[in-house]
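Worked example 2:
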Amino acid sequence: MTSSPLSPTARSTIRRNPVRARTDRAELHAVLDAGLVGHLGVRLGSGPDDAPVVLPTGYGRDGETLYLHGSTGAATLRAAAAGAPVCFTVTLLDGIVYARSAFHHSMNYRCAVVHGTLRLVTDPVEREHGLRVLTEHLAPGSWDATRPPDRRELAATAVLALGLAEASVKARSGPPGDDDRDLPAPVWGGVLPVRTVLGEPVPDPLLPAGTPVPARVRDRRLPGLSPSA
């Protein structure tokens, strides 16, 4: 994997606990590729009563571009497509950190934050590509195995692109950072790992009896297993 350093801007520079900042662009890609759900933050309007909105959304990455999608009628996507600045985040929780003091309880995590402006994808070829990227990120192998979107479905779907030029990555791992004064206390300290796992496939009741589970579902694996605590 080739990589390059992140180039922090005023918005993407990590100032709180900068030791946790990750500066390699490959680490940004790794967090985005390991997550399945991101959160898109956008402000609806510019008046004093217009509040920011943060909504969960699926996504997919192709190189230095994230593709998002949603209903063409969604107010958040309309505002984003009109040029409102956005913030997109993906967080992976790897463990709950138990300390000997309440203050030092924490979490082990990896988090990517991307700032920028969404671009409404209108070119038909790129729209199809973006939808393929989204589908393959969520359910690899499904784009070619299922019916593609028809005209009505495409007309109801907005596809947007977000560049990764302005992004940051922050992570924590390891044991609690207890104060020396608390170490002798008879209190357990350590990490309770958190794992995301895939269960057994549950077939649609409308499937014909005996329909086998395809390998793309049966053998699905999640990327980016959490690092050792």
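The first helix runs from residue 25 to 34. Residues 34 and 223 are 5 Å apart (CA to CA).
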